[in-house]
Design brief:
18 helices; alpha+beta
Length: 410
C-alpha cells in the first residue's frame, strides 16, 4: 500500500540551512517539543525528509526492518527518483555496508568483521600513542605556541592510524584527505567524478600490490577473508576501503575537535579530567553524546509504508534520524544540555544503533581517548586563542558534524 502523502507546507524548521548547521541544538529542542516527526522538503533534492528528534523514535527507526538504505529494493517508479543503479566509479565506491540491507549487508559485515578484529585494533594502541606524542613534539619544535588543533593534530592522528592499519602509505594521506573531502562534502560533479576515479585507480593498484606481496594489515585481511566460501569482489572491496578511510578518519577528527572544544568551554570538567586521566572512558562517551562527530545518521528510505510515533510515512519517502537530537532528549538524559564527563550510564547514539552500528567504534574510542589525554598531559596549559568561540565555523554537512579549524595556544 502506498499512502497518499499530505501536502507539505513550508516547514518552520529550517534544518538544512547554514544557520542551523552552526548550532542545531535549539532547533532540535523546539522540534522535539512541537513536531518530533517533522516532514521537511529538501531544499535541493525535493525529497520529503521526515526528521526524527526523540530518542525512542530514533532508536526504533535505526532498527526498523522496513527503513532501509538500498533504494533498488523499491518499486521501479519510486527507485528511479534516487537515481537508479550506480555505474562506473560510483558503483566502485558505493557498494559498502552502509548502503546495503540484509542479506547483502549481513554478508559484507560478516566478511569485514572477520578481518577487522579487536586483536588487530589493539595492536594499534601503542602505535596511536607514538603518533600522538610525535605530533605534539612536532608542534613544540616549531617554536610557535599557536597551532590549529584540527589541521596539526586532530586530522593527522587518525588518518595516520587508519592508513597504517589498512596498509596504505601514510605519505599519501593528503591525497586521501582531498579525495574524501571532495566526495563527502563536494558539490561540483566534475570534481567529484575526478576524485572518485583517482581514488579507485589508486586502490586498485594497491590491491594488486597486496595480492602479489601480502602484508599483516587490514587490506590483506580483507582480501583473504572468507565466510562460508564467499569473498569480497573487487567492487565491494573498493567500496569497503573507501568507507573505512572516510569513517576511519573523518569521524575521529570530529571526536577530537568537538571533544576538546567541550573541555575548553567547561573548565571544571577539563580540570577534573586532567586531575583524573582515568576518567577518559566516561569522558569520551559524554563527548560522543554532547557534541558527537555525526549529527544525522545516513538517511533511510521507507521500503513500505511505516508508522513512527503514530505518523504514517509513505513508501519511498526519506526518514532522517538525528542522533544529535536524540542525544539531548530530556526523557532519557538528565540535564541533557549539561556536559558531565562522569555521566554513567550513558546510552548515547553517537555510533548509531541496529545493524549499521559503527563497526569501527572501538578504534575511534581508543584513538579519541589517547589523543585527548596525551594533549592535556603534554600541553597542560593549552587553551583557545582569544575570541575563537566567536569565530567557530562548523561544516554545513547534516551528516558529519565538525569544526573547520580550532585555533589554540599553549
Amino acid at each position: 500500500m502506498i499512502l497518499t502523502r499530505p501536502t507539505i507546507p513550508n516547514s518552520p524548521y529550517p534544518v538544512f540551512t547554514h544557520e542551523a548547521r552552526q548550532n542545531p541544538h535549539p532547533l532540535y529542542k523546539q522540534m522535539r517539543r512541537e513536531m518530533p516527526v517533522a516532514p521537511i522538503l529538501g531544499p535541493q533534492s525535493g525529497f520529503v525528509f521526515w526528521v526524527l528528534t526523540r530518542y525512542d523514535d530514533c532508536t526504533a527507526a535505526l532498527k526498523h526492518p522496513q527503513l532501509g538504505r538500498d533504494h533498488l529494493r523499491l518499486p521501479e517508479d519510486l527507485a528511479n527518483k534516487f537515481g537508479g543503479k550506480p555505474t562506473g566509479v560510483w558503483a566502485a565506491i558505493n557498494r559498502h555496508m552502509l548502503n546495503l540491507d540484509p542479506p547483502d549487508h549481513t554478508r559484507l559485515r560478516g566478511l569485514v568483521h572477520k578481518a577487522f578484529t579487536p586483536a588487530l585494533i589493539e595492536t594499534m594502541r601503542s602505535r596511536t600513542q607514538f603518533v600522538a606524542d610525535s605530533l605534539i613534539a612536532r608542534i613544540q619544535a616549531r617554536g610557535d605556541q599557536h597551532f590549529d588543533l584540527i589541521d596539526d593534530y586532530g586530522f593527522p592522528l587518525p588518518i595516520t592510524v587508519i592508513a597504517e592499519l589498512l596498509g596504505v602509505p601514510v605519505s599519501d594521506q593528503d591525497d586521501f584527505r582531498r579525495w574524501t573531502k571532495t566526495l563527502v562534502f563536494g558539490t561540483d560533479e566534475t570534481e567529484m567524478a575526478t576524485a572518485a576515479f583517482e581514488f579507485v585507480m589508486y586502490i586498485n593498484n594497491l590491491i594488486e600490490e597486496k595480492l602479489a606481496r601480502p602484508q599483516p594489515d587490514l587490506l590483506t585481511n580483507l582480501l583473504q577473508a572468507e565466510e562460508a566460501g564467499d569473498k569480497l569482489d573487487r567492487e565491494e572491496l573498493l567500496s569497503m576501503i573507501f568507507l573505512l578511510l572516510v569513517a576511519g578518519h573523518e569521524t575521529t577528527v570530529n571526536l577530537i575537535g568537538n571533544g576538546m572544544l567541550a573541555l575548553f568551554n567547561h573548565p571544571d570538567q577539563r580540570a577534573k579530567l586532567q586531575a583524573h586521566p582515568d576518567l577518559i572512558r566516561t569522558a569520551v562517551e559524554e563527548m560522543l553524546r554532547y557534541e558527537g562527530p555525526v549529527d544525522q545518521a545516513m538517511w533511510r528510505i521507507a521500503m513500505d509504508s511505516v508508522s513512527i510515533a503514530g505518523v504514517e510515512i509513505p513508501q519511498g519517502d526519506v526518514v532522517t534520524i538525528s542522533l544529535y537530537a536524540g542525544n539531548r532528549d530530556p526523557e532519557v538524559f538528565e540535564n541533557p544540555d549539561t556536559f558531565d564527563i562522569t555521566r554513567d550510564p550513558n546510552k548515547h547514539l553517537g555510533f548509531g544503533s541496529g545493524i549499521h552500528y559503527c563497526l569501527g567504534s572501538p578504534l575511534a574510542r581508543m584513538e579519541g581517548a589517547i589523543a585527548i589525554n596525551t594533549l592535556l598531559a603534554r600541553l597542560p596549559q593549552v587553551q583557545l586563542v582569544p575570541g575563537m568561540n566567536d569565530r567557530l565555523e562548523w561544516s554545513d554537512s547534516t551528516l558529519l558534524r565538525g569544526l573547520k579549524s580550532l585555533e589554540v595556544m599553549y
